[in-house]
Amino acid sequence: MARTKDISLSLVRTIKASPEKVFAAWTEPKTLKKWMSPTEQMEVAVAETDPKVGGHYRIVMRDPDGKEHKIGGVYRVIEKSKKIAFTWGWEGSSDAETLVTVELRKKGAGTELTLTHSKFADDKTRDMHNQGWMGCIGRLEILFAA
Protein backbone atom coordinates (compact mmCIF):
# COMPACT_ATOMS: atom_id res chain seq x y z
CA MET A 1 0.00 0.00 0.00
CA ALA A 2 1.51 3.32 -1.06
CA ARG A 3 1.67 6.03 1.54
CA THR A 4 1.00 9.63 0.62
CA LYS A 5 2.26 10.92 3.96
CA ASP A 6 4.27 9.66 6.88
CA ILE A 7 1.96 8.77 9.73
CA SER A 8 3.83 9.20 12.99
CA LEU A 9 3.53 10.02 16.67
CA SER A 10 5.73 12.04 18.96
CA LEU A 11 5.95 12.21 22.76
CA VAL A 12 8.08 14.59 24.82
CA ARG A 13 8.70 13.95 28.51
CA THR A 14 11.16 15.12 31.14
CA ILE A 15 12.77 12.22 33.00
CA LYS A 16 14.34 12.82 36.43
CA ALA A 17 17.67 11.23 35.52
CA SER A 18 20.79 12.07 33.53
CA PRO A 19 20.90 11.39 29.78
CA GLU A 20 23.43 8.63 30.54
CA LYS A 21 20.98 6.84 32.87
CA VAL A 22 18.04 7.27 30.47
CA PHE A 23 20.16 5.95 27.58
CA ALA A 24 21.10 2.92 29.70
CA ALA A 25 17.40 2.32 30.46
CA TRP A 26 16.82 1.92 26.69
CA THR A 27 19.86 -0.27 26.00
CA GLU A 28 20.44 -2.48 29.07
CA PRO A 29 18.20 -5.58 29.22
CA LYS A 30 18.01 -5.60 33.03
CA THR A 31 16.63 -2.05 33.09
CA LEU A 32 14.40 -2.50 30.01
CA LYS A 33 12.63 -5.32 31.84
CA LYS A 34 11.57 -2.85 34.56
CA TRP A 35 9.60 -0.48 32.31
CA MET A 36 9.21 -1.55 28.66
CA SER A 37 5.56 -2.56 28.79
CA PRO A 38 2.45 -0.38 28.68
CA THR A 39 1.06 -1.55 32.02
CA GLU A 40 2.34 -2.81 35.36
CA GLN A 41 0.34 -6.00 34.85
CA MET A 42 2.32 -6.88 31.73
CA GLU A 43 5.67 -8.57 32.42
CA VAL A 44 8.72 -8.11 30.22
CA ALA A 45 9.75 -11.76 29.98
CA VAL A 46 12.62 -11.23 27.52
CA ALA A 47 14.80 -8.21 26.78
CA GLU A 48 17.77 -8.76 24.52
CA THR A 49 19.90 -5.92 23.13
CA ASP A 50 23.03 -5.43 21.04
CA PRO A 51 23.16 -1.62 21.07
CA LYS A 52 25.35 -0.88 18.07
CA VAL A 53 24.46 0.17 14.55
CA GLY A 54 23.26 -3.01 12.84
CA GLY A 55 22.78 -4.77 16.19
CA HIS A 56 19.48 -6.46 16.97
CA TYR A 57 17.09 -6.22 19.91
CA ARG A 58 14.13 -8.35 20.95
CA ILE A 59 11.49 -7.78 23.62
CA VAL A 60 8.78 -10.18 24.74
CA MET A 61 5.95 -8.76 26.83
CA ARG A 62 3.57 -11.19 28.56
CA ASP A 63 -0.04 -10.41 29.51
CA PRO A 64 -1.42 -11.62 32.86
CA ASP A 65 -3.26 -14.34 30.86
CA GLY A 66 0.05 -15.57 29.38
CA LYS A 67 -0.32 -14.12 25.87
CA GLU A 68 3.04 -12.96 24.52
CA HIS A 69 3.69 -9.84 22.42
CA LYS A 70 7.06 -10.05 20.65
CA ILE A 71 8.88 -7.08 19.16
CA GLY A 72 12.23 -6.94 17.46
CA GLY A 73 14.33 -4.88 15.17
CA VAL A 74 17.70 -3.43 14.25
CA TYR A 75 19.48 -0.41 15.69
CA ARG A 76 19.97 2.25 12.99
CA VAL A 77 21.53 5.01 15.13
CA ILE A 78 23.38 4.78 18.44
CA GLU A 79 24.78 8.05 19.81
CA LYS A 80 25.61 7.36 23.46
CA SER A 81 23.42 9.39 25.82
CA LYS A 82 21.97 11.40 22.90
CA LYS A 83 20.06 9.39 20.31
CA ILE A 84 18.84 5.89 19.52
CA ALA A 85 16.92 4.88 16.40
CA PHE A 86 15.68 1.36 15.71
CA THR A 87 13.26 -0.51 13.50
CA TRP A 88 10.14 -1.85 15.21
CA GLY A 89 8.38 -4.99 14.06
CA TRP A 90 5.89 -7.33 15.70
CA GLU A 91 6.88 -10.99 15.31
CA GLY A 92 4.24 -12.97 13.43
CA SER A 93 2.49 -9.83 12.15
CA SER A 94 1.96 -8.71 8.58
CA ASP A 95 2.20 -5.05 9.68
CA ALA A 96 4.97 -3.11 8.00
CA GLU A 97 8.11 -2.40 10.01
CA THR A 98 8.16 1.06 11.58
CA LEU A 99 10.92 3.29 12.97
CA VAL A 100 11.41 4.55 16.54
CA THR A 101 13.76 7.46 17.27
CA VAL A 102 14.57 8.49 20.85
CA GLU A 103 16.41 11.76 21.39
CA LEU A 104 17.83 12.75 24.78
CA ARG A 105 18.77 16.27 25.80
CA LYS A 106 19.98 17.44 29.20
CA LYS A 107 17.36 19.63 30.83
CA GLY A 108 18.17 20.99 34.28
CA ALA A 109 18.85 18.04 36.57
CA GLY A 110 17.03 15.68 34.21
CA THR A 111 16.62 14.69 30.59
CA GLU A 112 14.15 15.79 27.96
CA LEU A 113 13.17 12.66 26.05
CA THR A 114 11.60 12.99 22.61
CA LEU A 115 10.23 9.78 21.16
CA THR A 116 9.14 9.73 17.52
CA HIS A 117 7.59 6.59 16.08
CA SER A 118 7.09 6.84 12.31
CA LYS A 119 6.20 4.97 9.14
CA PHE A 120 2.80 3.72 10.31
CA ALA A 121 0.50 2.30 7.64
CA ASP A 122 -2.60 3.99 9.10
CA ASP A 123 -3.94 6.20 11.87
CA LYS A 124 -5.43 3.27 13.82
CA THR A 125 -2.05 1.53 14.16
CA ARG A 126 -0.43 4.82 15.15
CA ASP A 127 -3.07 5.46 17.81
CA MET A 128 -2.64 1.98 19.30
CA HIS A 129 1.12 2.50 19.52
CA ASN A 130 0.63 5.98 20.98
CA GLN A 131 -1.39 4.46 23.82
CA GLY A 132 1.30 1.81 24.37
CA TRP A 133 4.14 4.34 24.37
CA MET A 134 2.32 6.61 26.83
CA GLY A 135 2.15 3.66 29.23
CA CYS A 136 5.78 2.66 28.67
CA ILE A 137 7.18 6.18 29.00
CA GLY A 138 4.99 6.74 32.06
CA ARG A 139 6.58 3.65 33.62
CA LEU A 140 10.05 4.96 32.67
CA GLU A 141 9.23 8.25 34.45
CA ILE A 142 8.14 6.32 37.57
CA LEU A 143 11.33 4.22 37.47
CA PHE A 144 13.41 7.38 37.94
CA ALA A 145 10.96 9.33 40.12
CA ALA A 146 12.01 7.65 43.36
Can you give me a brief rundown of this structure?
The chain has one domain (7-145): START domain (Alpha-D-Glucose-1,6-Bisphosphate, Chain A, domain 4, 2-Layer Sandwich), CATH 3.30.530.20. Helix content is 27%, strand content 44%.
Tally of DSSP helical segments: 3
Q: What structural category characterises the helix and strand content? A: alpha+beta
Approximate shape: globular
Q: Give Rg in angstroms.
A: 15 Å
Write down the CATH class: Alpha Beta
Q: Got a strand count?
A: 7
- What level of helicity do the residues show? 25-40%
Kindly report how far apart the N and C termini lie: 46 Å
Report strand %: 35-45%
List the secondary-structure elements in sequence, H or E.
EHHEEEEEEH
CATH superfamily, by name, is START domain
Number of domains: 1
Can you give the mean pLDDT? 94
In CATH, the topology is named Alpha-D-Glucose-1,6-Bisphosphate, Chain A, domain 4
Give the strand order, joined by hyphens, for the main sheet: 1-7-6-5-4-3-2
Which quaternary structure do these chains form? single chain
Point out poorly predicted stretches.
none
Q: Which architecture does the CATH hierarchy give at level 2?
A: 2-Layer Sandwich
Largest sheet: 7 strands, antiparallel
Walk me through what this model shows.
The protein is of the alpha+beta class and 146 residues long. It has one domain: START domain (Alpha-D-Glucose-1,6-Bisphosphate, Chain A, domain 4), CATH 3.30.530.20. Helix content is 27%, strand content 44%. The chain has three helices and seven strands. The chain has helices spanning 19-27, 29-35, 123-145; strands at 7-15, 43-49, 56-62, 68-79, 83-90, 98-107, 110-120. The protein has a seven-stranded antiparallel sheet, with helices on one face. It is globular. The mean pLDDT is 94.
